[in-house]
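Reopening this ticket.

The earlier resolution said the output was attached, but the attachment link was broken on my side. Pasting everything inline this time so it's all in one place.
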Amino acid sequence: MTSIIRERSKTWSPIDCLPGAKLTESGLLEMLPGEVLMWNRPDLVELRAAVADEAMTALSFGGNPANTTGKTWVDRSLDCQLTITTHRIVFQQQLQEPQVSSNNHNIKARFIHLSSLIADTQLERGTMFKTARILLGTAMGELYVIFRGEKGNGNAKDVVSSIETAVRRQEWETESKLQKMEKTVTLMMSSSNKVGVDAILSRSAARHEHAASITSQAFAGDAETLMEEAAALIKIIEKYVSTLDHHDNSKSSSSSNSDGDSSAEDNKRLTDMLQNMGMTAALRKTDYKGREEAYYAQLARQLADFLRPKLKNTMMTLTDVYCLYNRARGSNLISPDDLLQAVQQMEQIKTLGLSHYTFPSGLRVLQDAALNQDQMAQRLVEIASSSSSSPNASGLGGTTEVETSRHLQVSVVLAREQLLAAESKGYLVRDETTESIRFFPNRFDDWYDSLIQNRRSSR
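Inline output:
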């Protein structure tokens, strides 16, 4: 966690001379296409201008020159959190008040694109009288990144190594390389003299051979090779997902049969697997040794970004969250205790859009922060009133745990807890039979009011 510092509106410092980096709704760095996290630590650094007396040009969040009239130049930006990716060097600084242009919370995030480095990164090791630092030669000017603390030398060495590796790979140029590769494959397929079905089969075989070649190259080496081919793998995954989506849209307009339903179900499973295949910025607990609270805060933000699209006006048990999140990570899995600690951090941060709730039975869930139990109870009343199950003699609908789970697309255990919670609040009543427990809207208040009104009118 970065420390809280006060934003001085009458000054500007080196961090204000860099273009802005977008953050997610939870305050994490929003990755560019094909970008992968390489290095991140909770230890804070200082960003300092190499020439203190020469003021650097301030930039707006969009990268345009900013007006500095009436402001004073300060040659250093304190308490910055440093992140290295395959594309950028990112500095994040905590502010006391939210920054409108930063588009997120109270964090100022600025970056140096690795393509703008005009000189090799120089490392100056720390001594008893001097802190460890690295010198960045950029198009905006020379900047020092100063590392303090007992891990300063180690962190500085790791950062230089990460920057040199990223610059050597030049992953930001992968997009153009992939486009050239696709054009080459297209030309190879179009140059074939085959026609008809034979031509279609040949083009399909060529595409599969190209995808298999990239996959075999990516997994037939060390971690360096895998990182270099990661963008190509992502492109293949996105292509298959878009193809399946197009297939589903075309199938929806045609009549379905048992074989079609089976195919649609298989396609949906494959799409879900591809869309949840891996994460580009999985945190490692070992990187936060001695700073576990910062690790759990970052984990809470990553969890929120991952779960928010899946929890729109609904909730999910912690058991399901644990399984779903670890499946997306693929490796470097979190423990149940890590999840509980992250959930506690969510309650402290309060701006992540998710909240934690415990049912009377002890079942714990994560839910949309905008959702409350009264709203959920009203939704259950609507389900019970308009249930497609056979109505009873009075003409009222009803619902069971299984039927409710289908309506809400949640587990039966969670549906049962929601029904019991709504019953305890007086929204629902139950009818216990040998078949099942069926829940109905609570009409007793309406009947009571109607009875009182009839008695008054009869007098």
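Reporter confirms the inline version is readable. Residues 330 and 369 are 28 Å apart (CA to CA). Residues 1-8, 388-396 have pLDDT under 50 and may be disordered.
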